[in-house]
Amino acid sequence: MGKNAVKLTLAISDYDHVRDLTSGVVPVEGVQLQALDLQVEEIFYRFLKFREFDVCELSFAKYVSLVSQPDCDVTAIPVFPSRVFRQSSFYVRQDGPTSIEEIRGLRVGIPEWAQTASVYSRGYLVETVGIPLTEIQWVQAGVNDPGRVEKVKLRIPDGVYYRSEPNKSLNDMLLSGEIDAMMSAHAPQSIEAGDPRVRRILPDYQQAEWEYWQQTKIFPIMHVVAVKKSVLEGNPWIAMNLMKAFEEAKRRSIERLFDVTASRFPLPWSRVFAGRISELFGSDGYWPYGVEPNRVTLSSFLRFSYDQGVTHKPLEVEDLFPAGVQSSFKV
Q1: Most buried of the four, 111, 174, 216, 264, by CB within 10 Å?
Q2: What is the pTM of this model?
């Protein structure tokens, strides 16, 4: 690394598809990178509140909310380290609704209105299931512990019932009957403990998620890689060099999946299952980076976010990333 390399801190979770970058096996040209392996909740909090890192993994919902507000000091590159379908995130008591349609008119708990998973789940309810936001009573609280609060400014739509319960948890309120259902990216404690009083509304959620993808071509993006705008001032080339390094690290991770000499993951038939992903999803199954391969998901999320009041004005996909990284490229 040259003596004139730009020094940057990167905070990101320890995913296999970024490990070759964070370990230094894949360098970022012109950059001396100090990588920090932290839990996502800590990364989000420290960056949103204090801007402690130059580059970091960030909640997609928090990011688009910031972009929609004046004087945003953050941008991002179209690298998406976490993607998860969210039909698995609906929980009820054992005696509760047996279908998604039955939560119409009920009290539904959420960890945060501006949680990315919640945005996708509400988008699914509105556009696929057909339940308007106004026909659910929304209750915000921590999943297992009290005290969770919203981290960005909201614009709750007219007619939507929303209240916070800072001194309660969703898990306890579900068990006590104070809410009828909850949506959460992280399973409630009762589910993790095997409590028979709580279950998923959709036990065969994988089939529901597959059908959702076939119908919409939305493969939910949970996190983006955010960059402080001050980092790119005078050094706009950093954005593309970061992008190329992330792309190469992911390519190496996928290559490991198909290693025929030795299994790199502690799963039987991992190579077989990896091959099935391409049969089912095509190239979309290996989490493509960039704008065009993800335009349907990106534009759908922006629509959900504005309709739900997470963003304060309508945004276009092109508003999210520096112009220099919006064109397709091959490493």
Answers
A1: 174
A2: 0.95
